[in-house]
């Protein structure tokens, strides 16, 4: 039987083999969730292949690459209380989506549950997991796991209404660390995010990617989030830290230039986080400085 609490959302762009593998895995889940795929302007026959092999999948074709906003487009179609985000190169363990839904059922102040990530084909744990597991944030007594400051979109289940109320993913950020701004806005609205050790997502990174572009977007989006939501002194401190630590190359220079060129709209949209939420990000900064999983070196 289909779990009436869950809908899976996937975005893709020119990754037909990886997407079909993911959809095969999702079709085998005992939860039998409906699946919505946003095909971000693929030119490799993705849409046709999905229609043939998985005719029950709802396929959205915006006609261009919307990046993370493709998820927003899909969530508009969701009619279940929870949305399971899945990338085209990730897939959920059987029972894990339902396990996340159980946590959201039991804890009404929880907006997001992030699963443990296992890297395939080797079956090793993603380095980011240890940071999730050992998050330094103080958590409420009711919370079932560590409190998080952000989440990973390919490995998380979110409360649909909370996602919509927070505005979804910001259209300017496209892809690359786009979760941090949404997570901060959820926290500013009183929501909590957690990590669940007993839930698992598998990630077999696609070889069809541009790591240089992803790094540039990651640096740029980190700067934009910092300038949009952090108080002046912490924002300056984090900006200087990035300037000192990112690779000194044309990719980083381009990322800083793109970020600086957007200052007019950044200042127009700037909204500093509440003090208690800003304190969480301050606590996370030491972890991020030491992080090998978050370094912009790819």
Automatic annotation (TrEMBL):
<feature type="domain" description="Glycosyltransferase 2-like">
    <location>
        <begin position="7"/>
        <end position="131"/>
    </location>
</feature>
<comment type="pathway">
    <text>Cell wall biogenesis; cell wall polysaccharide biosynthesis.</text>
</comment>
<dbReference type="Pfam" id="PF00535">
    <property type="entry name" value="Glycos_transf_2"/>
</dbReference>
<dbReference type="InterPro" id="IPR001173">
    <property type="entry name" value="Glyco_trans_2-like"/>
</dbReference>
<dbReference type="InterPro" id="IPR029044">
    <property type="entry name" value="Nucleotide-diphossugar_trans"/>
</dbReference>
<keyword id="KW-0808">Transferase</keyword>
<protein>
    <submittedName>
        <fullName>Glycosyltransferase</fullName>
    </submittedName>
</protein>
<dbReference type="GO" id="GO:0016757">
    <property type="term" value="F:glycosyltransferase activity"/>
</dbReference>
<comment type="similarity">
    <text>Belongs to the glycosyltransferase 2 family.</text>
</comment>
<keyword id="KW-0328">Glycosyltransferase</keyword>
